[in-house]
Amino acid sequence: MREILDHIHLRPKYCVWEITFICNMRCLHCASQVNEGWTRGEELSLGEIRSVGLDLAALGCEKVILSGGEALLRPDWRLIAQYLVSLGLKVSLISNGFIIDGAIARQIKDAGICRVALSLDGLAPTHNYIRQHPHSFHRVCRAFDVLKEQGLPVNFVTHINRLNLPELGALEEFISARRADVWRLQLGSPLGRMESHPELLIQPEDLPGIADFIVAAKNRRQVAVSVGDNIGYFSAHEFELRNTPNRQGLNFWCGCSAGCLNVGIESQGNVKGCLSLQSDRFVEGNVRRQSLGEIWQKKGNFSYTRDFQPEDLHGYCDGCEFGEICRGGCVFMAYGATGSPHNNPYCLHRVMQEGQPRILPEKIHSSESNPKP
Questions:
Q1: 237-293, pLDDT tens digit by residue?
Q2: How many CB atoms neighbour CB 89 within 10 A?
Q3: Which residues face 91 on adjacent strands?
Q4: For residue 41, how many other CB atoms are within 10 A of its CB?
Q5: 217-247: string of b/e by CB count within 10 Å (b at 16+)?
Q6: pTM, whole model, 2 decimals?
Q7: Cβ neighbour number for residue 7 with a 10 Å cutoff
């Protein structure tokens, strides 16, 4: 695996860009912990964003995801999207959908945005509770409808947690009935606001049942299911979890790509290998002080992935037969759970080897109502 890392063409192929820290929600699982009375600092100006966009294109970036906060609350979001599209980048948007009406949906289409991902965290009572707003579910459904009227591909993104876990079967039916293009499933990590809500956090022993559900949903083909990088690894389901129609490369986990193929840019210009890594430990530089190219190419940056050695593994991961290629799975999950980028209890191989019971698959497949928040 070391040879693969040494020969990979390091480039920020995928960029997740937090163009604003402002948000109109206070979601219980938010790793960024927005709306807590603080900001990251002065946000990048449109001119600064254009300069960084040029750097991204020069470095070989292909796709940019506009994020937040809530990206649509930045007044010049359309100008940002249009400029990035003019550079030849594929630009998509992730949104909570709350303010998307017919007019904004047309603006999204006219700006050249090629895909929108909407957050959906459960059936109506659960989604509204997690999003802390009584009308959130209705608004995200409206957003889906008006975006589809514009002919845009629309995905749903679900953070699996203990409240929506029993609803996954019903959510599959709901999402397939609306004919969403993709259903993205991922886990939350105990960072930010989620750290204050441990009752929501999926436990490692839940993973086999979740994997069983995902594989079954893929086989049912009612909706295209995409699996987040923090679900896996190296179980009997590994190929089925990783195998998707648009996946390029090997159909098994090859280690975290933060700082190798992925880059995250925060609203004030801080650069990380992954935008989900909510710790200053992972800040590699700021585009106001250095160019993105200088940050990306600086020796020693993104060392937790680029300079990984098997000796960096900790805990159960230390000595694992898959450790050299896995590198501890998703850094976001590992760091949130253990404080180490390379010690990850959220690992299917680890759970199965430790003999954890397979729980909840029958509840996951059912559409029974969720325990009331």
A1: 999 998 875 555 567 898 999 999 999 999 999 999 999 998 999 999 999 999 999
A2: 19
A3: 64
A4: 13
A5: bbeeeebbbbbbbbbbbbbebbebbbeeeee
A6: 0.91
A7: 7
